[in-house]
Amino acid sequence: MIYVVATLSVKPETRAEFIAAATACIRETRKEPGNIAYDLHESVTDHTKMVFVEQWENTEALVPHRAAEHMKTFGRVAVKCFSAPPKIEVITPEKVDIR
Questions:
Q1: For the CA atoms of the chain, what is the radius of gyration?
Q2: Residue 55 contacts by C-beta under 8 Å, 6 or more apart in sequence?
Q3: Largest CA distance in the chain
Q4: Is residue 97 part of a domain?
Q5: What pLDDT sits at residue 94?
Q6: What predicted TM-score, i.e. pTM, was given to this entire model?
Q7: What is the pLDDT of residue 62?
């Protein structure tokens, strides 16, 4: 299992447009094979900071996701909304013995 954490900063005047495009993208992404969870979160202190938290079965599931038409559509909108380059991290859960 892997997680993708994408931290995004959007221009205040494009926030509604960004959220609308993200909502459509989320709806379609959740139908993709290998997707476990795909959620958008908003900072409680800065409403221009958005964070996608994604959970996937494996890295291979990201290949068709990145090429999906709904991702291309979202990308065309999102790129106009960014106020800074996105920070995207792919992470894996660490198995820690907490006994």
A1: 14
A2: 1, 2, 3, 35, 36, 37, 38
A3: 49
A4: no
A5: 78
A6: 0.89
A7: 94
Residue 40 near residue 78 (C-beta atoms within 8 A)? no
**Which CATH number is 64's domain given?**
3.30.70.100
- When divided into structural domains, the chain yields a total of 1
**Residue reference for tokens 């792919």:** 90
Residue 38's CB is within 10 A of a number of other CB atoms, namely 21
DSSP notation for the chain = -EEEEEEEEB-GGGHHHHHHHHHHHHHHHTTSTTEEEEEEEE-SS-TTEEEEEEEES-GGGHHHHHH-HHHHHHHHHHHHHBSS--EEEEE--------
76 domain-assigned: yes
For residue 18, what are its two tokens?
């960004």
User: From CA 93, how far away is CA 20, in angstroms rounded?
Assistant: 30
44 domain residue, yes or no: yes
Token pair for residue 1? 């299992």
